[in-house]
Amino acid sequence: MVNEDAAIGAVIDALYAMVSGPAGPRDWSGQLDVFHPEARQIRTGQDSGGDAWMTLMDPEDYRRDTAAFFEANGFFEIETGRRIDRFGNIAHVWSQYEARLAADDPIPERRGINSIQLFRDSGGRWRVVAMIWDNERPGLELPPI
Questions:
Q1: Is 38 exposed, middle or buried (0-12, 13-18, 19+ CB in 10 A)?
Q2: Do 80 and 34 touch, CB atoms closer than 8 A?
Q3: Who contacts 100 (Cβ-Cβ below 8 Å, separation ≥6)?
């Protein structure tokens, strides 16, 4: 029997590897191995007035939205903590991260949490169906996971 947590972990590892790297285009060829075609990625934050905002994207929207940033900037997102909860064909992963603009930056540019929901299809393959994230900021510190 497949170790389900290891299979889910492999998807999460591939997700981080896909977005991390030096300045330049990303290799999106494995995106549909990680994300269901109808998946949603949701960036959240707070504006300068303290109001919450979100940007809802499908996988193609995410590629388009991040292309200019990745072209101009190095970005290395490293997972620093993970908790997996499973029930049947669904799983939820709390994944803490640190992001750096260079792999050897001593201090992260940002830290946050990815809340990732996965579905195991009839072939036994886990893929992300929804992912929402928020970054640490004054008054909002990362909790232990």
A1: exposed
A2: no
A3: 74, 75, 76, 78, 108, 109
Report which residue type is found at 62: Y
The answer to whether 85 and 116 have CB atoms below 8 angstroms apart is no
Rounded CA separation 81/93 (Å):
10
How does pLDDT run across 28-53, given as a tens digit for each residue? 999 999 999 999 999 999 999 999 99
What is the per-residue pLDDT across 62-81, written as a single tens digit (0 to 9) for each?
999 999 999 999 999 999 99
pLDDT digits (tens, 9 = 90+) for 112-138: 999 999 999 999 999 999 999 999 999
Amino acid identity for residue 66 in this structure: T
In this structure, are residues 17 and 29 in contact, taking their beta carbons and an 8 Å threshold? no
* Rounded distance between C-alpha atoms, residue 89 and residue 94, angstroms: 17
Architecture of domain 4-135: Roll (3.10)
The span from the CA of 137 to the CA of 11, in Å, is 27
